[in-house]
Amino acid sequence: MPATYDYDLFVIGGGSGGVRASRVAAAHGARVALAEEYRLGGTCVIRGCVPKKLLVYGAHFAEDLQDARRFGWDVPNCEFNWPTLRDNVLAEVDRLEGIYGGILENNHVEVFDQRATITGANEVTLADGTKIKAATILVATGSWPMVPDVEGAEHGITSNEVFHLDEIPKRAVIAGGGYIANEFAGIFHEFSCKVTLVNRGDTILRGYDEQIRDRLLQISVMKGINFVFNAPFERIDKQQDGSLMIHMTDHEPIEADMLLWAVGRTPNTVGLGLEKVGVELGKNGAILVDEDNQSSVPSIYAIGDVTDRVQLTPVAIREGQAFADTLFGNKPTRVDYHNIPSAVFSHPPIGGVGLTESQARDQLGSYKTYTADFRPMKNVLAGRNERALYKMIVDEGTEQVVGLHMIGPDAPEILQAAAIAVKAGLTKSQFDETIALHPTMSEELVLMR
User: Annotated active-site positions, please?
Assistant: First the structure.
């Protein structure tokens, strides 16, 4: 690269996608720098999927300890200590942040622990005023929790703050109907919190298969989680004792100790200077990019949640890899966005890949569905009435399995392997020809008739 550039690549954002792009580009021989204003690891590692999954594990012990008695274990009455779990989770986050820093250091990526903004097609300016020239700029700043424009909204918290609570609230209202809302509803409920999930719409987990999300709603209600639908927020009043009075349209106010906003995430582009240099943005602030992650300014690229294509960490990582291989590795690569598996770590969890039944109805000439509705063996002996539901969607013309959706214990763990089969285009008969692994829950995938 010409000597006028300080770096071949400058990455803004030290999350999973930005770190992957940085280290791969550096391994290809590029001179790389990265700026991160908060902590290396991004949303997923620092305040997202990783600490949340650890809380899910912690919450599951509430039921596991109860079930253990049915399996012969003399378990005394146990008390949950939130500060212990919280501090252990945060310590693990610190450990992972150190690993991310080590990855960048080992790959000779220079890291600037401060905010960077774009001040030219080939220029970034750090918070301390330092200007840096780069041949290519990659924006990987992720997304940010949305807070609605409602009077008193500032009295609520978001997923950014939820991992740092001093104590578990006795009463919590969770706003939203997506995966974050349902995951934290399950977590707080298992921690003996009275949970009410309030949604302005009439359904949860929009985009997931209807039978699967209905099963989660049924189980959640049976557990004791309250749901309020078609209830837009009007205002939140903070009372003298510190509690909140939450007012909604056409619904009685709800008193709570905590309000968690989980109403979606928006691309984190505010104040980056993108508009000033001509980068085209979408209505929600997302950076518009082509199949090669290139924006309307040829030297500026973007990956991950900031593009608002698919807001999943593994997708951001795959995009970062493709970007680096294409630009610096002489290996042109594009991400295939078809049949991306996803999971909801609710209680019980959900996993899904491919077409839902409603999508199959719209996109296929004819299709068949196969289901396995059963009570897992562990639940039977534990005396739990929760039933798992597996659903397979098949293109009737080709017999290809075009969708798999499941809810039940370990559903995401099971789905990962099954997603390979869906991605490979295997048929229903090929599933049927596979001998079942007995006794397991996953054997139901090859026994549907």
Answer: 438
